[in-house]
Design goal:
Layout lengths: L4 E6 L2 E6 L10 H16 L5 E6 L4 E3 L4 H4 L4 H19 L5 E5 L2 E3 L1 H8 L2 E5 L3 E3 L13 H9 L1 H9 L4 E2 H7 L4 E3 L4 H13 L3 H13 L5 H14 L4 H11 L8
Parallel strand pairs: 2-3, 3-5, 4-6, 5-7, 6-8, 7-10
Antiparallel strand pairs: 1-2, 8-9
Helix pairs in contact: 1-3, 3-4, 4-5, 5-6
The structure holds coenzyme A (COA).
């Protein structure tokens, strides 16, 4: 693993931490490549039933793409950087278990986009969030133009992007950009508690639920509803479905394997 990405796994919860605190965890190419590799490991070699993404240190989740690195990029180099960023955010969005972004501080530009690709976002009261790219003469390039408006709505997304607004955690919550705000020193505990709860759920059902919810943005309602029906009925006969429903009927706790 790289110096700037840490991965650890315990009891079904895998935590990936961007660890470049002297740059407020900004993502240069090496860090982004290491993050891509860590996501692959979390999927393939760890028994990941819930994924947590966070940043090291007290100040930042991820302060964005690395501005120093970007400052001299050619169009071709920028294209490669965007493609890498898209591969990473797609890997989070399609990760076969729920992903929680523990937004412990600054989440700007690409940092905000990482959080947007997660299923759930929990913010420290110290978090400051924004798609700040227009202020740098570019636009959000790792999925922000598409995912932000799906999460906060068209008008709010336009406001955030056009004005390169930097909003605090309470405003982010009011916008629907984060699901929950907690005291800074309670963030780790709260996210661990959520992740443990998710890891204890029937994994196949959760994965299917995520696929179906992701499908909302992929298709029109009719196709989405058809997709949901197929997924729903396909879950019948799985060990988790049988055990969950039998346990309910027998008035006992389920024992998921
Ligand atoms: N890329 C590269 N380096 C970054 C960075 C980024 N996105 N964000 C912060 N850094 C670096 C700073 O250059 C500084 O390096 P230095 O110590 O060598 O001077 C270090 O991280 C600490 O940042 P600093 O600006 O001194 O901290 P601060 O507390 O005064 O301000 C921010 C923090 C996050 C408000 C400010 O750094 C900032 O606005 N960063 C850019 C955020 C952004 O627009 N990101 C989107 C990029 S697409």
């Amino acid at each position: 693993m790289s110096d700037t990405i840490e991965i650890e796994s315990s009891e079904g919860v895998t935590t990936i931490t961007v660890t470049r605190p002297d740059r407020l965890n900004a993502l240069d190419t090496e860090t982004l490549q290491a993050l891509e590799a860590a996501l692959r490991d979390a999927r393939d070699t760890h028994d990941t039933r819930a994924l947590v993404l966070t940043g090291a240190g007290e100040d930042a989740f991820v302060a964005g793409a690395d501005i120093e690195y970007m400052s001299e990029l050619s169009v071709e180099e920028a294209q490669a950087y965007a493609e890498l960023g898209h591969r990473v955010t797609d890997a989070i969005e399609t990760f076969p278990a729920p992903a929680i972004a523990a937004v412990n501080g600054y989440a700007f530009g690409g940092g905000c986009e990482l959080a947007l690709a997660a299923d759930l976002r929990v913010a420290s009261e110290r978090a400051v969030i924004g798609q700040t790219e227009v202020g740098l003469g570019i636009v959000p390039g790792w999925g922000g133009t598409q995912r932000l408006s799906r999460i906060v709505g068209d008008e709010q997304a336009r406001r955030l992007v056009f004005f390169a607004e930097r909003i605090d955690a309470q405003d982010a919550h009011a916008y629907g950009l984060v699901g929950e705000v907690v005291a800074h020193d309670e963030l780790d505990d709260r996210v661990s508690e959520m992740a443990a709860e998710l890891a204890a759920q029937p994994a196949f059902a959760l994965r299917s639920a995520k696929e179906a919810l992701n499908q909302v943005h992929e298709s029109h309602l009719t196709a989405g509803l058809r997709y949901e029906r197929r997924l729903w009925s396909g879950l019948f006969g799985t060990a988790d479905q049988r055990e969950a429903m039998t346990a309910f009927v027998e008035e006992r706790d389920p024992d998921f394997r």
